[in-house]
Amino acid sequence: MSEVHAVRRGLLRDRCAAAGSAAALVSRPANVRYLAGGAPPGAVLLLGPGEDVLLCPRAPAGEGAHGRPDEALRIDLLPVPDEDPVVAAAGLAAASGAESLAVEEHDLTVARHRAMGKSAPRLALADLGFTVEQHRIVKDEEEIGCLRIAAEITDQALGELLESILVGRTERHLALELERRLVDHGADGPAFVTSVATGPNSGQVRHRPSDRRVEEGDFLSVRLGASYHGYRCEIGRTFVIGTAPAEWQIELYDLVFAAQRAGREALAPGAAYRDVDRAARHPLESAGHGEGLQPSTGHGVGLEIEEDPQLAPTAMGKLDACVPVTVGPGVHLPGRGGVRIDDTLVVRPEADGGPELLTMTTKELLAL
């Protein structure tokens, strides 16, 4: 991957030079990792005007969850551990002869931006914007391979849970068990906070597990994902506990399943983000569930669990090949519960078989 990271840094350096900046400072952790191979806590990456430098408050500790920095990079340890690395980077850029420095203003506080200006008053600070995030949208096959393994780990953890006794256990206990199983199967850790929702809580978009216990006849909705070498996937499934599902549960499940399938089938290179969202949203709105739907049907995944593109009604742009996204519509009926079905897929052209499904756990409505 060393050559890959060097190429990524070269593309960013060329982009900055074209905009009039001889140097760039990358501070957002996911962007640092994308360009440097590793992002030790607090580290920032300075590109140019001489050699590229990773400034770290402390020495990188092997690979770990933060990755391993590219061996081609120079690593500078800050002499004072609590020194702000962005301020140190501004001083280093100025000392290296740079007249301007592109920075990620969206990642910096006003106080840090001002401190950089005071440290290097002759250095003109420009906004790098979301340039690195835009480069990250299309993944190479090695990145997709990491996502594929993350999805396999996630499927394993979820599959094992489904084979255990669930009635009487709390949402919180089940969520903790899922996260432990992710690590047992080789994950860096969970990609995000695992959500387990039962009964009237099921189907909610951002439900935090509570002490409610699983009961017979409940809907059980689960949303989880593994992080593997920094790359994060997402899966959402809904099941019925104990008995055959009630008629209203079958109808609601079939509706959400149809919406999710429509969203998946809309994924193709050149498809507008908003059109994919519309494909999944329309069946739910037509059935009278338009009010209360989540703002977006899906989003990109990678080094962050929610990154561009956003599959939303007002989103601008079109999908490219090799873009991994989630498609996860859901409906929640207050006081009764609901359904979420969520997959991670990679956009592929029709000639290559269409969208590649990474999360394989069955979407059949199982009674557990």
From TrEMBL:
It comes from the Bacteria. Signal peptide: none annotated. InterPro entries: Creatin/AminoP/Spt16_N, Creatinase/aminopeptidase-like, Creatinase_N, Pept_M24, Peptidase_M24B. Gene3D superfamilies: Creatinase/methionine aminopeptidase superfamily (3.90.230.10), Creatinase/prolidase N-terminal domain (3.40.350.10). SUPFAM superfamilies: Creatinase/aminopeptidase, Creatinase/prolidase N-terminal domain. Residues 146-348 form the Peptidase M24 domain. Pfam families: Creatinase_N, Peptidase_M24. Residues 8-138 form the Creatinase N-terminal domain. PANTHER family: AMINOPEPTIDASE, CYTOPLASMIC PEPTIDASE PEPQ-RELATED. This is M24 family metallopeptidase. The lineage of its organism: Bacteria, Bacillati, Actinomycetota, Actinomycetes, Kitasatosporales.
